[in-house]
Amino acid sequence: MSTVIASSIPTFNNSSPIELLNESIQILDDSTVPVKNEKEKLKELLTRFNEGKLHLAVLGQFKRGKSTFLNCLIGKKILPSSVVPLTAIPTFLIYSEQPFLRIIFENENKQPEIVKTNIDSIETLIENYVTEEKNPENKLGISFVEVHLPSELLKQGIVLIDTPGIGSTFTHNTETTLNFLPQCDAAFFVVSPDPPITEVEVDFLKEVSKKVPRIFFILNKIDYLSSKEELDKIYEFFKKMLSEKLKIENAEIYLLSAKLALEGDEDNSRINELRKALQEFIYKEKDKTLQKAIIIKSINLLNEVLLEINLTIRSLTLPLEELEEKINLFEQKVDEIKEEIIIAQDVLKGDQKRLLEKLDEKSDELEKTSIQHFFNRIKDDFENSEKILENEIPIYFEKEFGNFTRYFNKLVSETLKKHQIRADKLISSIREASAKIFDIPYKAPESVGVFELKQKPYWVKSKWYTPLLESIFDTIKAAILPAPLKRKMKEKKIKEHISQIISNNIANIHWSILQSINDSFRSFSSALNERLEETIEATKGAINIAIKKRKEQTTKVEDEVKKLKKDAETLEQIIKNLSEFS
Ligand SMILES: Nc1nc2c(ncn2[C@@H]2O[C@H](COP(=O)(O)OP(=O)(O)OP(=O)(O)O)[C@@H](O)[C@H]2O)c(=O)[nH]1
Ligand SMILES: [Mg+2]
């Protein structure tokens, strides 16, 4: 006959992740182990979870109909749409009973602007802030705009986000959207048959699929297609592209005519199928998508807390002599790891230097090709050279600035990712060493966060071109010289001018990227040191407190150990239950 012993450890069988997180915070609140950091982080996660708003963004190439599509989801023309590239600023649609706008600026010291409005005036009002036409090259320095408005769809806990279209000549719009990706929890990716899908879109989609866990595809503007055969053909083509180029199988693709939907043609627009899918997603998947990220982060934190609790227990129970021995061993190990970190920091500095050399090399190359390009451009149409330069130089450098940023962004994230993996291993090895020395089970956390180039974006934009002073040409014109000589003088002046402008522009691009690279490496390096110190402190702190307790109040040690053991068991159970939700 077996004896069933009733356990005093709760099993939380029916607890929700929020209850589990609350429970663990309570344990940490009452704990004598120094876990303040972890507790704060857990509280932040819980708040985010409680607010529970999923960021659902609409992404795609310019002019695919993203803004129009959002208007038809909301059922009202809220976002401006046009035949020219338009949306320039990410625009968040958030539920509120009373409509108002909140404008958030890039300069964090500038207070957000609140603009009260009524629902019918929203479109004309936000035009002033989010469109390329009214806010060219984001001269207002806006980071994003929130449109708070009453809507049944938004009320269900989603925030819909309109993003600037990628791939237009306004490369800063592409940059804005690429930087924005990590904030998306899920996305609608909009394509259309005019043309079906471009290389730019394929590249963009590769980025999106790396950063956004859930994507719906929308084949918009189906009213362009005159027959079912055409529709099937384009659908199959798109599906094949997703499978061959992006290895996305079984993609969810919805057909749509946002235009017809706005006109109220429910049947031909096929909007209802999409609405249904969205409702189903909100109903079945929304919370899960958000939950997953929160749970993984919480489990990592709780595993660290467990290690500290177990360390304290060991420090309270081991014979003092043995404990001293182990502490010495641990200190030695920490010193070894610190040495390795110094070496890693040196390698990091070397990589930073190599990237800066690459920047010099690329800038020199660009200077040469740009001068050649513009000399050639004016050669055959000399009389119009000023017009040509004025028109083409800003576009040319706008594009090159975008290319440079993308190129170095990729190099920086690849380089720092490599370092991050190494740093994670080293930091983890501190915890692993303590676990091993003190004979405690330990599970290393999963890596979080990818480092990217810090953007110092658009300050160079307005200065791409400064015209030559009229008076220089007037002087040449007025001079008593034969015509061919005058032309030669003018040509010389213009060429000098081109070289000067190109050199200034390249210096600006170079400076901007250089600052970004240095900032990225600096913040990586200080984050690494901070994490290292934190980890060592947490581990040592747990041991030191235990030793102090032993020396001061030997009689209570037994009770303390009992309580800690119970906490550890409860946390283990919470981790187990949480992982069932992830
Ligand atoms: N025929 C047709 N035209 C559409 C449809 N959806 C949008 N359009 C038109 O396409 C043009 C671009 O629409 P927008 O909604 O501004 O496109 P967008 O993707 O937001 O563009 P950007 O903000 O520049 O990236 C507008 O002229 C819309 O009227 C559609 O389903 N059918
Ligand atoms: Mg738009």
Task: Describe this structure as you would to a colleague.
The chain has 582 residues and is of the alpha/beta class. It folds into two domains: 53-284, P-loop containing nucleotide triphosphate hydrolases (Rossmann fold, 3-Layer(aba) Sandwich), CATH 3.40.50; 318-553, Up-down Bundle (Four Helix Bundle (Hemerythrin (Met), subunit A)), CATH 1.20.120. The chain has helices at 17-30, 36-51, 66-74, 122-130, 152-155, 171-180, 199-211, 228-246, 258-262, 266-269, 271-284, 286-317, 320-379, 385-437, 470-478, 483-552, 557-581; strands at residues 54-60, 91-95, 100-105, 113-116, 142-149, 158-162, 186-191, 214-219, 253-255. It has a nine-stranded mixed β-sheet, sandwiched between helices. 31% of the residues are buried. Mean pLDDT is 83; it is low at 1-6 and 447-462. The site of magnesium ion has 6 residues, from helix 3.
List keywords for this structure.
alpha/beta; Rossmann fold; Four Helix Bundle (Hemerythrin (Met), subunit A); 2 domains; 9-stranded mixed β-sheet; 17 helices; 9 strands; 63% helix; disordered N terminus; binds guanosine-5'-triphosphate; binds magnesium ion
